[in-house]
Design goal:
heterotrimer, A mainly alpha (333), B alpha/beta (398), C alpha/beta (271), A: 333 residues, mainly alpha, ABC transporter involved in vitamin B12 uptake, BtuC, 2 strands, 70% helix, 1% strand, C: 271 residues, 10 strands, 22% strand
Chain lengths: 333, 398, 271
């Protein structure tokens, strides 16, 4: 483990994000839209991977956490902050100072909800947990739909446009950094231990309750941040945008990427966001073709998209001679 | 086994890269010709939950564009319509409208039916100062998003007023019950506008009940309404639920008329309700029987092209494109501020859905038509003009 | 040899019922510091149930369990593990998707100074601790001759190595008492004698007490200092192996079984 390498990558991503963000007026708004969507989906998929992939708690409620983050963050920039600091409602101030606080508030609120959802995971497993979390997501959606103060069924409109490439790339990098740092530590191997065998995990002193709730809280926190970014990017949020199809979409990225494989999940999130955009020319057949490709991918890479061994074998014809793939290298500990 | 897995992977990878390559191909340019086409964007729910509306609106728009091009285009240039699907999904409209504006370089955007989708696209069009014309989003908020956002349909505030007048004057009801869809902003809004105008006209709302889109059983609400003994029941919902509500109301022995707004309009309404809705009423934007040359021309061409009579959504989709073409003609330019100003100054534009005037709030001032269901068919009853609907009538009778 | 005067682990009158079946009834059991105690009995005698009572998987309906002077009543398995009781399982329970190295590393979790915040910040304390854990894991893997498998997935190891890895993982929690549930099941005679050496070695090197459930009388006789015999959840006899195995009740309980020394190992039935 090279000390600080991961942290340097995080700093690099933040720096790249700010440079790109300063140059964003040169980028075609449509590409910008797709890039931001990709980054938001990376945050969602990587954070869900902590719950589903590493800890083995099959959750289908991620859109619910995202909704909480989106609504809390949007309410902060639209109502609460201007209410508290009437002098400071200039767009610049909101973008620079209020927005990070709003994202944090959205993340914290979603994390709090993570405790509520994590609690049933202590008693339920597999399909049953999936159903409970799915129900949670729907409850959240219905609550927001009936809250007239946040627009009811029509949703919130006129959210300030605070999300830019800097925030999305930084937050995506932060999510990846946080999740990989956590799981790649002695402490963090406990998440995988809980997934592998709860009884054995308890027997070596792992508090499975605390680990599961931690996974839900951390996963929900980042989903909340993703929600905040989403709302301030689309400028309009609608309870229907956080329905269980959204949760399934995120779960699909995790499954396709390979449960508990962060690189694979990132690749899957990028691919599954770009694919529908690239398929736009085929119009009505788009979703049909998209579904067909999903099936094809699932059949050809059932273990997940990113398998180092598969890629090495794929590249071996080009590397033959000098760098022929060796046996499994000793795992860097 | 291993070889098979290999082939599978290569196949998968090959298929994927083929699609990526195919997907990356630039979109085809407009029809060959001397004049460069005017690029018009449209975003619609072509697939997904609201595809019925989206397809209908798109058919109308497409027909209008073809008609204009057959007549030589506008300013000597053909119109090139670029349609993007938002799958009826929240969040997609923003992306496709950004694509239309920045990649396809359209001069104006047409869409959407659902107010929620229009509200997503509006700030983006406003930001780029590209005029957007919504054919049939009736929520007031849509045009409040900025001075580039227009619509060619009437507002729910007007529809509510028209229905209040209809209930009071034509149905001669003073006691009305309201059964609205709490999950649909359209229904909630329309119910509120109706209530306000109906109460102002000295009517009385004797019961108010709510349901949620997707509900199947309305007996509890209907029983409560029956107990209040209304003279008519206002149901400002969508056709799926309205059909079931009508069936269950008749089963419960409720015989007073039901009436509602343009959400009723779909052939499915009668398929669901059967005879339960005979002699009941709804308001909408357009009726095929309206005797105007534009309307008759539209009905005839639409029927010839698609093999079915158009509904109001199709008429509004048609009108949105016609109104845009008219504005381009008057502006003498297909872009920027002149186009926006030309749309804003539209007066008594004659479309399939009647005369349209864009008011200072960029909304359409136009008439509503009342439809009744007779022998399983939609039949025109009367037209209610804005002047009539908004007049504070004294209550009829003594 | 009698029960120790001030035992490390003490069960008093422990009873547990499953529906109408009394699996363990009024059991008294004591394990002294650094003692090698064998718990034997025919299939279904309640041996694994005793393990599950000690480790908190089951709660006794009556009686109490004390460890190192404090009661274990109401504690969760992970809390009991943190007090210093580690165990292996009759049907090996490794973390199959993790590497051999990580299987052991995760067991160091109990004695971590750094938690989630340190893992995120990755400061000097965290890195120093991770490095020291890494070297201690490698040291243990080398001692138990698993070093060359460190990067392999745990489920890919040969059976004997898996058994050994499970013991190493249990030892990594730094227990004072190690519970071994039929470690010789499925082993051939040479593996068994190696296991016996291993158990004695572990007990001496880590200076811990071992409670061994085992069917193989050869292993039991060769390792244990003292035996407790269980049948139908009741204690039949207790004492040094030679005496206990000649006890008439024990002979009766095992009747027939002792005459067939090569009985099927690792009977899947839970005791």
């Amino acid at each position: 483990m090279m000390p600080g390498r991961r942290f340097l990558l995080l700093l690099g991503a933040v720096a790249a994000g700010s440079v790109l963000s300063l140059q964003s007026h040169r980028i075609n708004p449509y590409f910008l839209d797709v890039a931001v969507t990709v980054a938001i989906n990376v945050i969602l998929a990587v954070s869900l991977n902590l719950i589903n992939g590493y800890t083995g708690q099959f959750s289908l409620g991620h859109a619910g956490f995202m909704a909480i983050g989106a609504y809390i963050a949007a309410s902060t920039t639209m109502f609460w902050a201007p209410g508290l600091l009437p002098a400071a409602s200039s767009p610049g101030f909101i973008g620079m100072a209020v927005f990070p606080a709003a994202l944090l508030a959205g993340g914290l609120a979603a994390g709090l909800a993570g405790i509520l959802v994590g609690a049933p995971s202590l008693r339920l497993k597999g399909d049953y947990l999936a159903i409970v979390t799915l129900g949670f997501g729907e409850i959240i959606r219905v609550i927001f739909r009936n809250l007239e103060s946040v627009g009811g069924a029509l949703g919130l409109n006129g959210i300030p446009a605070c999300t830019n490439l800097f925030w999305t790339i930084s937050m995506a990098a932060l999510t990846i950094y946080a999740v990989t740092s956590m799981v790649h530590s002695t402490y963090g191997r406990g998440f995988t231990a809980v997934q592998d065998d709860e009884i054995a995990a308890e027997a070596i002193g792992i508090n499975t309750t605390r680990y599961k709730i931690t996974a839900f809280v951390v996963g929900a926190f980042f989903a909340g941040i993703a929600g905040g970014l989403y709302g301030h990017f689309k400028l309009s949020i609608d309870p229907r945008g956080f329905d269980f199809m959204k949760s399934i979409e995120i779960a699909l990225m995790v499954i396709l990427g390979g449960m508990g494989n962060t690189v694979g999940v990132i690749i899957a999130a990028i691919l599954l966001t770009l694919l529908p955009e690239l398929l736009r020319p085929v119009a009505e057949y788009r979703m049909m073709l998209y579904s067909f490709l999903l099936i094809l991918l699932m059949l050809t890479c059932p273990q997940g998209l990113f398998q180092p061994r598969f890629f090495r074998r794929l590249l071996s014809p080009f590397l033959r001679g000098s760098a022929a793939p060796a046996e499994d290298p000793p795992r860097p500990a | 086994m291993r070889a098979h897995a290999h082939i599978g992977r290569w196949l998968g990878l090959g298929g994927l890269s083929a699609v990526l390559l195919f997907g990356c191909r630039p979109s085809p340019s407009g029809p060959d010709g001397a004049a460069e086409p005017i690029r018009v964007g449209e975003f619609a729910s072509m697939t997904g939950k609201e595809a019925a509306f989206g397809q209908s609106s798109h058919k109308g728009t497409l027909l209008a564009i073809e008609e204009i091009n057959a007549a030589g285009g506008v300013l000597g240039r053909p119109l090139h319509l670029i349609t993007e699907d938002n799958q009826s999904k929240p969040g997609e409209s923003a992306t496709v409208v950004r694509k239309l504006i920045s990649r396809e370089r359209v001069v104006a955007v047409l869409g959407e039916v659902a107010s929620g989708r229009s509200l997503e696209a509006a700030p983006i069009c406003q930001q780029s100062r590209i005029p957007m014309i919504s054919p049939s989003s009736t929520n007031p908020k849509v045009t409040e998003m900025g001075d580039c956002i227009f619509r060619v349909c009437f507002l729910d505030s007007f529809q509510g007023a028209a229905l209040a007048r209809f209930a009071r004057q034509t149905l001669q009801s003073t006691r009305v019950a309201i059964l609205s869809d709490a999950a649909a902003p359209y229904s909630v809004g329309l119910a509120a506008f109706f209530r306000e105008r109906f109460l102002a006209g000295a009517g009385q709302v004797v019961a108010e009940q709510k349901y949620s889109s997707g509900d199947k059983d309305f007996k509890a609400q209907l029983t409560a309404i029956r107990a209040a003994q209304p003279e008519a029941i206002f149901v400002p919902g969508y056709y799926t639920e309205v059909g079931l509500i009508a069936l269950q109301a008749r089963q419960l022995g409720i015989s007073v008329p039901l009436f509602g707004g343009d959400g009723w309009e779909a052939p499915e309404l009668i398929q669901i309700a059967g005879t339960a809705l005979e002699g009941n009423y709804y308001s909408t934007h357009f009726a095929p029987e309206v005797e105007s040359t534009v309307a008759q021309n539209f009905v005839q061409k639409f029927t010839a092209k698609y093999g079915a009579a158009p509904d109001a959504i199709a008429a509004l989709g048609y009108d949105s494109a016609l109104l845009l073409a008219d504005a381009i003609r008057r502006a003498g330019a297909a872009e920027g501020a002149p186009l926006r100003d030309a749309i804003a100054s539209t007066r008594d534009f004659s479309g399939a859905s009647g005369l349209t005037t864009i008011d200072p709030q960029r909304n359409a001032r136009k008439s509503a038509v009342m439809i009744t269901i007779r022998d399983g068919r939609f039949c025109y009853v009367q037209t209610i003009t804005p002047e009539e609907a908004l007049r504070n009538e004294p209550s009829p009778g003594p | 040899m009698n029960a120790p005067a001030s035992p490390l682990l003490e069960l008093r009158g422990c009873t547990i019922r499953f529906g109408g079946l009394t699996a363990v009834s009024g059991l008294d059991l004591a394990v002294g510091e650094r003692e090698l105690l064998g718990l034997i009995g025919p299939n279904g005698a309640g041996k694994t149930t005793v393990f599950n009572l000690i480790t908190g998987v089951y709660r006794p309906a009556a009686g109490n369990i004390r460890f190192a002077g404090s009661s274990l009543a109401g504690l969760r398995p992970c809390q009991i593990a943190s007090l210093g009781i580690a165990r292996t399982f009759q049907n090996i329970r490794l973390f199959p998707s993790m590497t051999v190295f990580d299987n052991v590393r995760v067991a160091f979790h109990l004695h971590l100074l750094s938690g989630i915040a340190h893992a995120l910040w990755r400061g000097r304390t965290f890195r120093a601790e991770e490095e020291s854990i890494e070297s201690r894991v490698m040291e243990m893997l080398e001692i138990f001759r698993l070093g060359r498998h460190r990067g392999a997935a745990a489920h890919s190891l040969p059976y004997g190595d898996q058994r050994r890895l499970e013991i190493v993982r249990a030892l990594a929690t730094r227990p004072r008492l190690l519970l071994l549930d039929e470690p010789a099941a499925g082993m051939n005679p040479s593996e068994k004698s190696e296991l016996m050496r291993l158990i004695r070695f572990v007990q001496e090197r880590y200076r811990i007490a071992v409670l061994l459930v085992e069917h193989d009388m050869h292993v039991v006789r060769g390792v244990c200092q003292r035996l407790v015999v269980l049948d139908y959840g009741v204690k039949l006899a207790e004492g040094v192996p030679e005496d206990v195995l000649r006890h008439p009740k024990v002979v009766a309980a095992y009747l027939g079984e002792q005459n067939t020394p090569r009985r099927a190992p690792a009977a899947p039935a839970e005791s």
